[in-house]
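Ticket #4471: complex job returned nothing on first submit. Input attached below:
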Amino acid sequence: MDWQTVVIPSHPNFMGVVERRVLTSLVDLGFDDAQLFAVRLALEEAVTNAIKHGNKMDPSKKVTIRFKIDSEKVSFEVSDEGEGFDYNAVPDPTDDEHLELPHGRGLLLMRAYADEVTYNEAGNQVRLVMKLDQDRVEEGAL
Amino acid sequence: MDGRKQRLMVEPRGEVTIVTFVDKKILDESNIQDIGDQLFELIEKHYKIDLLLNFENVEYLSSAALGKLITLNKKVKAENGKLKLCCIRPQIYDVFKITKLNKLFEIHDTEERALARF
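Support reply: We reran it on our side without changes. The output follows.
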């Protein structure tokens, strides 16, 4: 499969558009619930960060999602039009002193569910790679 | 009616209010605002509420939902109420473990066990 692109306005209401495009492809290929859950969560956290923290919900700015599914992995690239951020400066939300903060867990969840999480230098584009378990795909689906 | 979709099923059981999430995939980014508002309205109506959240229908949640639960927990505690969670599927429980929020929330396997701990 070639890279596919979805461009959405900076509002969480458009999350469903992205998920339908990506997850429908994975369902068609026969991936099981656990893999769909992981992909959905990592993707949602990346897109949410782009909408809220990157573009700060600015309706004039867009979020661009590129994705590619092949036989071994699914790759995403989520870009926003914000100034970027220093992903190394995000505090660890699992520290006792941060445990009750109501935000700051998106990056942790992306790193937990994706095999690779990399940012561009500016910090306004994240690339996620998630390896797919071929044993859990219906035979002949790919 | 205010036209919002009802996201919660609310059932008083003795001194405890049991809230069950209605839809299977409600706790995502696009719906969480409604759910948070409805939960906060509920605890504002009931001073010192003992609240049990039943997750049996929930197949998905993201960090936005975790944030709402943390805020809810603070509001309930501020009024000397109690909040417990139950019936969380393994996939969802993994999210609580990864974020270590299983240390912050009291989580039980069944409604009965949770009710016995209030």
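Chain A touches chain B at residues 12-13, 15-16, 33-34, 37, 40-41, 44-45, 48, 93-94, 99-103, 105-106, 108-109, 112 (CB under 8 Å). Closing as resolved unless it happens again.
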